Batch of 2 targets.
Target 1
Amino acid sequence: MLSLTNLKVKVGEKVIINNVNFNFEKGKVYALMGPNGSGKSTLALTIMGHPQYQIENGKIEMEGVEINNLSADKRAQLGLFLSFQTPIAVSGVNVFQLLRLALSGKKDPLEIKKEIEKYASVLKIPNELINRSLNEGASGGEKKKLEVLQAAVLEPKFLIFDEVDTGVDVDAMKVIAQFIKKHKKDKTYLLITHYNRILRYIKPDKVLIMIDGEIVKVGDYKLAYQIEKKGYEKLCI
Ligand SMILES: Nc1ncnc2c1ncn2[C@@H]1O[C@H](COP(=O)(O)OP(=O)(O)OP(=O)(O)O)[C@@H](O)[C@H]1O
Ligand SMILES: [Mg+2]
């Protein structure tokens, strides 16, 4: 589905991602873990095409097509989706208006509206929040739920959730996890997380550990438990 080959990423003169090689397969769930500042969000933003992160070397391919030079919106059209670690507020635009624009020509506005209502009910997002400017004044957990709702309506193929479990209460986390489980078919998930709790509900096929911009270890779901018990230093350094 998505492959990274010898990927090296810089911001200014600083190398953040170094020599990352990985192939994400269709229909699988991956967890990406690692200490603060190890480069997880940078990797996510680079895959999505954030202009601040320059690819110094290597390539990103989506279904066999190199996407290094594509803009973020082109990547989104190819089926990439990123739920931000810190979702930004968009003043004057509600989630319906945003999704209608993103899906123009692909989904009927009425269908979009119906889907928003359906998923808002599943995710327990109140109507008032749906009608508000996106993320404006929303709590941490509400923002994360709104990200999941957008993913549901957009129906991407490769979904990155950057700390979707941070700041959400246990009920919301279960709802989010169940949601991901239910919508796994033909999709690939990359869940960036610091905690095992979400991984108890969605068992990842593989757990990747990133340290200092490199993927230093890959294992099955048990690796996440070992990390929790022993910490990164003992296991990976
Ligand atoms: N735009 C930027 N300018 C300068 N340094 C940056 C920039 N973006 C990221 N970095 C640096 O790159 C490193 C990796 O940051 P990143 O946000 O990818 O870490 P992370 O693994 O997601 O950490 P966390 O678990 O805390 O979210 C950090 O040292 C960070 O300060
Ligand atoms: Mg991060």
Target 2
Amino acid sequence: MDEKVFYTRILGIKLPWFVKQVIMDEAKQRIDIYVDHEKGIRVRCPECGEFYIMYDHAPERVYRHLNTCQMETYIHVRPPRVNCPIHGVKQIESEVGENGSDMSHAFESMVIRVAQECSIEGTTRLCGLTWDKVWNALERAVNRGLASKEHRIPVHGLCS
Ligand SMILES: [Zn+2]
């Protein structure tokens, strides 16, 4: 199994997506994984849910992911954009991480778990992150919590 197949498997990447390249920098103790997709994929408009042939890519995003052993690991992905006849050019939400975050979902949830066990200062040291990055991750988690609570309000309760 080569390193591209290895990372495709452990990251759980499914076609049409695949790992195109893996670069290991032993001096920096860092691994960069480049994720790409097959040509001519269909992309869903986030507004109306209709599928269209991919229009173009948004600029590359780089997400910090869980370490590979002791090496910091980063995932590179170019989010596809759709040109919906009704809603215009829209970027789809990446499955790797949230828009507005430079952490993968898995890395971010690890940071949040660490922050629940110790102070923000302790979290910055254990995760090798700046105070701002830890704080942003916590803020996004709080916002997600608020958004899911809004969804749980029964509709008939609001109208009666
Ligand atoms: Zn649309």
